[in-house]
Amino acid sequence: MDRKVITKVAPPYQELAKRMHLQGSVKLEAVVRADGVVKSTRVIGGNPVLIQAAADALIKRRFEVFATRNY
Q1: Is residue 55 within 8 Å of residue 48, measured between CB atoms?
Q2: Rounded distance, CA 32 to CA 48, Å?
Q3: How far is 51 from 24, CA to CA, in rounded Å?
Q4: Beta carbons of 20 and 49 less than 8 angstroms apart
Q5: What is the pTM for the complete model shown?
Q6: Mind listing the pLDDT tens digit for each residue in 28-50?
Q7: What is the DSSP string of the chain?
Q8: Within a 10 A sphere around the Cβ of 40, how many other Cβ atoms?
């Protein structure tokens, strides 16, 4: 299920990546708790130099609270 991002944190451009002129995408999967906090992440793909900064930024993001519906 997709939930709206409430607080978006961009990953910093790491010094090593700058020196190596690296850029690109990192694909991560996240498990988000009902309160909107990221519980865990899993790397799907991307440059290993960029992965940690991307994962750290994703952990700091906050998502909308999951609302249960009573039918």
Answers
A1: no
A2: 23
A3: 10
A4: yes
A5: 0.82
A6: 999 999 999 999 999 999 999 99
A7: ----EEE--PPP--HHHHHTT----EEEEEEE-TTSBEEEEEEEEE-HHHHHHHHHHHHH-EEPPP-----
A8: 11
